[in-house]
Design goal:
CATH superfamily: Restriction endonuclease-like alpha-beta roll domain
Strand content: 35-45%
CATH class: Alpha Beta
Order of helices and strands: EEHEEEHEHEHEEEE
Radius of gyration: 16 Å
Distance between the termini: 47 Å
Number of domains: 1
Oligomer: single chain
Shape: globular
Number of helices: 4
Length: about 180
């Protein structure tokens, strides 16, 4: 018997002082059976950081030719491609060719550090690629905010995000490993 995704609902209120973006989003998140709560909450947090009317979740883990999130314009051109984890060079080369901007949020702890050491030089040629690292303790704090029905507020200022739930909050300030040239 195949396992089914677990569905979470989130009412996310965003106050992004850096981009002057203020909005509320009613989101439905499907947690794939192989996805951890930490990763799912990272998807939600990254959505808050990049929120727009055209940013959306994709099939993610269950498909090879889509990122975790993307922003398309009304002509269906990919403006922003967001990956979570440690994608290989071939996948990022394809993403950088298809999208105006590509952002990777690496979160695997020691495995992510090794991935970065092995690939940092290869990624330098991708001018539209940005790579950030998320600490394991941050993921733990994000997971603590998870509920089947969540009401969260995200406040973003100076590149840092404070995600607050009904009983707790988490700081999110990833480390920049590579900035985009463009």
């Amino acid at each position: 018997m195949a396992l089914k995704s677990t569905i979470y609902k989130a009412e996310l209120t965003i106050a992004d002082m850096d981009r002057h973006y203020y909005a509320s989003h009613g989101l439905t998140l499907a947690q794939h059976p192989s996805e951890t709560v930490e990763r799912m909450m990272l998807r939600l947090t990254v959505f808050a950081l990049h929120a727009s009317d055209t940013l959306g979740f994709t099939k993610g883990i269950s498909t090879d030719d889509e990122p975790d999130l993307w922003q398309k314009n009304y002509s269906e051109d990919i403006e922003l491609w967001i990956e979570l984890g440690e994608p290989d060079e071939k996948r990022l080369r394809k993403a950088c060719g298809r999208a105006e901007q590509v952002v990777v949020y690496s979160y695997g702890g020691r495995a992510a550090d090794i991935w970065w050491q092995q690939n940092a030089g290869k990624f330098e040629r991708f001018g539209n690629l940005r790579v950030l690292s998320v600490e394991p303790a941050t993921l733990t704090a994000l997971a603590a905010l998870c509920e089947r029905g969540m009401s969260l507020s995200a406040t973003i200022q100076d590149g840092a995000l404070l995600l607050a739930g009904s009983a707790d909050s988490a700081q999110f300030a990833p480390v920049i490993l590579k900035s985009a040239a463009r």
